[in-house]
Write a structure and sequence with these properties.
Blueprint lengths: L2 E7 L2 E7 L5 H8 L18 E4 L2 E4 L12 E3 L12 H8 L9 H14 L5 H7 L11 H17 L1
Parallel strand pairs: 1-5
Antiparallel strand pairs: 1-2, 3-4, 3-5
Helix pairs in contact: 2-5
This protein binds FE2/S2 (inorganic) cluster (2 copies).
């Protein structure tokens, strides 16, 4: 049995028929070929699959595609216009905040979710917002520093 779904992904309306057990992550990666969201643990532990669903940061490996029916989804591909990096992407690059890069899409989406709600977070608030995102390479310091650097740049430019 397949189920019809319709959702908005990165501002575009997408319709498809999906199997009931298909996760949102598999739908994004395999059906829409939006492979920026990564499949790490597949059980909600690593945050590599994080996307924004109706304003909430969600592990897309834990959500079924049918549960996203009618919802508004933002993936890492929705942040840049493919000519200009999103400021978070740019500051991660500038501050060398990733090594293998596997965690970066989820980290950046979690950071965007935080800054959408709280444009000038404290260090503790950044750490809390990223607490569901695991990184095996960086030790997290440069990731947190990049986000704080961006928010301090924006504060001094205001
Ligand atoms: Fe979804 Fe790890 S792949 S939390
Ligand atoms: Fe490798 Fe974070 S940079 S997992």
């Amino acid at each position: 049995m397949m189920i019809d779904v319709k959702m908005t992904v990165n501002g575009q309306e997408r319709t498809a028929s999906v199997a009931p057990e298909t996760t949102l992550l598999t739908f994004l990666r395999d059906s829409l070929v939006l492979t920026g969201s990564k499949l790490g643990c597949d059980v909600g532990d690593c945050g590599a699959c994080t996307v924004i669903v109706n304003g909430n940061a969600v592990n897309s490996c834990l959500m079924l595609a049918v549960q996203a029916d009618g919802k508004d989804i933002t993936t890492i591909e929705g942040l840049s216009d493919f000519e200009h990096l999103h400021p978070l992407q740019a500051v991660f690059e500038q501050m060398s905040s990733f090594q293998c890069g596997f965690c970066a899409p989820g980290m950046i989406i979690s950071a965007k979710h935080l800054l959408d709600k709280n444009p000038h977070p404290s260090k503790g608030e950044v750490q809390e917002a990223l607490s569901g995102n695991l990184c095996r390479c960086t030790g997290y310091t440069k990731i947190v520093d990049a986000i704080l650097e961006l928010t301090s740049e924006e504060a001094s430019a205001a």
